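User: I'm writing a tutorial on reading structure tokens. Could you give me a worked example: one chain, its sequence, then its tokens, then a sentence or two explaining what the tokens reveal?
Assistant: Sure. Here is the example chain.
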Amino acid sequence: MVTSPRSPLATDNQSLLGVGASGQGNTTGQSFVIDVNEDRDFGQEFDAVRKKKKRSKGKKKGKNAASGFEENFADAPLTPEEAKEENEDLYSPWVIPKSDLVSSTLTLGNYSSRSFAERIEFCIQRYRARRKFDSERKDMFDKYLVLGGIESGPKAFSNGIDAGNPGDNTAEDIAALGATDYVGGDKVSAGAEGSEWVVDFEGIAKCFFSSRVPQTYDIDIERNIPLCTSLVKNFLNYILYHNVCPEYAEQVEAARKICDLAVEELSSIKELSQTMPGDFNVACSTIYGGYYQGMYSGNQDWADGIDLTCGMDDARAKQVVMTAISALGTDEQFEQAQREIVIINNEELGIEVTGIELATDETRAFYENSLGGALKTMGKLLVKSWDHPFAPPEDMSDDGQAEDQDRAFQERTFEFWVEEDLLHRCFVGLKAIVNVRTLNCGINYFDTVSSLYCSFFTPLTQEAMMVWRKPEAMRPRGEMLDDDADGAQEGDNGGENRGILGEDDEF
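And here are its predicted structure tokens:
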């Protein structure tokens, strides 16, 4: 848009240029009488007004500009030239010289293959350039890439490309030289036959959402879950839109489904972590000895006026337990509860939810008619034991081998009584590490719930490498490295206070 010079003068002349013959400001905006004897540079003043307006419009446009992370957005439409370049060069498994693109017939077998590592590098580089990352998204995306084997930093080799003297190198070659995300080391052969590395979009998504995100980010903060899932899904949409790796399209689609599933399951885990183990399990722990025994603070003087009560009082705990046994237990369990109940087994183990049974109409009516409906209706949570990866390591000593053989993992099934409001948040496949206690009447209860995991929980070995640092050379006792010695000679205390004991030093 081109603006006439009259327009800014007409709007801003009253404070800058509009001076009438009698000295009064011109308010009509139609004509101006200027004192020719006045020593003023009107050209500079007009340029200042015009530049000021351009800057303000630019800022306003920047605030309202799209970030590229809008829902269901992949990328802007491609021009025919861009689509041809991507399909036949950047993201094509066949690299075709540009001189041959004009040919009407192409024999793809005459050209070498562009590896997956090259294509994903170009993809990440262009994706970053076409998105407006804030600090949170950048941090999440960086961690996602590192988990997927993408290294960050300057490349060690430039393949003969000189950014200062491009020569015949293409723009893509020059841009690739300045890229900070690349596939390094032996991972460049990922996906090739005989490579130790495989391409697994789905597995990386599972590990990222089920392991890295809960450990790294506070999922209790409402925006963190949709922020990280939408970010990864946006990147996967970009890969599909540009057909970066058609041979792994099914994997990318499966990873997108994991993004949607992660939103549901992480949200449920967030709510369960704040309410588990539930009233019945807390009541059993209070009565029969456990984590919550003696924790009740409602009868303490210091708790007066504080809206925070921990644990459960003994009287209410007995009501909760006996009502549950009456509603869900057998006649034998009810009779045993009238005599004496003690703990006969106490163990920490992993469990996986296999079924959820909500209260029957009969059970729901029983609770409505008991204690005026003051207690929550109970249902059943069916689980099986889960051989979780955080179990203590095996004892490989001679004395421990026999015990380990007896302790070998065996799948078992359990039934737990849980309130319906918690059962609605549970889902089949939910995994947890819990402390399970068994009573002599055959009832199991959670004493504590230490961890909750998604149904697709997938730990990967490369997680340990995310915090790995390259070992540094050890300094011989009483000696300094070359850089320390140079610093000491220059008088910058380069060799002092390094925490290294010399030959004559004392502890």
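What the tokens reveal: The chain is about 40% helix and 10% strand. The first helix runs from residue 6 to 16.
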